[in-house]
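Researcher: I'd like a candidate sequence for this fold, 180 residues long. If you have to choose between options at a position, lean toward the conservative one.
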């Protein structure tokens, strides 16, 4: 399964790095491929290192203005002209999507992926990996949107909130019909 991961390129605290490393190892050991932003910095590097060290495949999708940060040694590296093309390429290559901790870029990716899913423009499973409660506030906001009629489908059909990588991967494998 090609698992698209949206996450930060920043260097982060161990409360985010350690669970990310564990999740990356699960992806690689499970025989999955990581589709990611292609960067060799921050949490993106942690994920790529972990997947590659555990035997998984790396499919990087970088963007021209960040190509100098692209990871050497990825199984495949695509460089797009802009962020919109990058997101579209990542979605096209993914069987499933995981949104990890990140800043405004990750939030932009998350909202676009969820908006496309809401409108039926993709049916790939989406997980928000809520490491250390990072997305608790967003989860509350989504529940409010659902309760007040802003979502045309149940929140559970839109996105799955996982507390850890084990739960995230189990959900994705079930929803994507992955049998190993």
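Model: Candidate sequence:
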């Amino acid at each position: 399964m090609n698992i698209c991961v949206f996450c930060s390129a920043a260097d982060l605290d161990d409360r985010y790095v350690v669970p990310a490393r564990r999740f990356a190892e699960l992806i690689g050991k499970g025989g999955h491929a990581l589709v990611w932003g292609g960067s060799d910095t921050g949490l993106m590097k942690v994920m790529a290192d972990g997947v590659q060290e555990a035997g998984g495949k790396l499919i990087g999708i970088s963007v021209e203005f960040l190509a100098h940060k692209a990871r050497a040694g990825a199984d495949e590296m695509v460089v797009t002209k802009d962020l919109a093309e990058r997101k579209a390429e990542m979605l096209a290559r993914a069987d499933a999507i995981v949104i990890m901790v990140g800043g405004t870029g990750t939030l932009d990716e998350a909202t676009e992926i969820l908006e496309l899913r809401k409108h039926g423009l993709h049916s790939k499973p989406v997980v928000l990996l809520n490491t250390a409660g990072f997305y608790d506030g967003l989860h509350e906001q989504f529940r409010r949107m659902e309760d007040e009629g802003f979502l045309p489908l149940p929140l559970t059909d839109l996105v799955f909130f996982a507390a850890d990588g084990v739960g995230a991967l189990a959900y994705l494998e079930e929803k994507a019909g992955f049998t190993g």
